[in-house]
Amino acid sequence: MSDEVTTVQLSKSVVKALKQIKKYPRETYNEIILDLIESAKEMKEFDKFVQESQKTKMKELWGEGDYSAWEHA
């Protein structure tokens, strides 16, 4: 069973931007948007990874909950 299709209104500037990031000429807007969604998910996961590694390093450097030195950093 295929997904239902809907109509979405986009400004002409958004359509132009989507056309500029096409990987190949016949790529559909649906494919482009799905790629953008996947990229956003990957970036979110990367951000979580970076934040967790920073949190670990901060605990190592400053100790648990002692951030008073930040005032003079």
Describe the fold and architecture.
- With 73 residues, the protein is mainly α.
- The protein has one domain (12-63).
- It has helices at residues 12-20, 29-62.
- It is elongated.
- The N and C termini lie far apart (58 Å).
Q: Return the domain count.
A: 1
| Average pLDDT level | 85
Largest sheet: none
N-to-C series of helices and strands:
HH
Q: Give the C-alpha Rg.
A: 21 Å
Structural class, from secondary structure content? mainly alpha
Give the N-to-C terminal Cα separation.
58 Å
Helix amount: 55-70%
Give the tally of β-strands.
0
Could you tell me the strand content as a percent range? under 5%
What is shown here, in short?
This protein has 73 residues and is mainly α.
Give a quick set of tags describing it.
mainly alpha; single chain; 0% strand; 2 helices
Map the helices and strands.
Blueprint: H1 12-20, H2 29-62
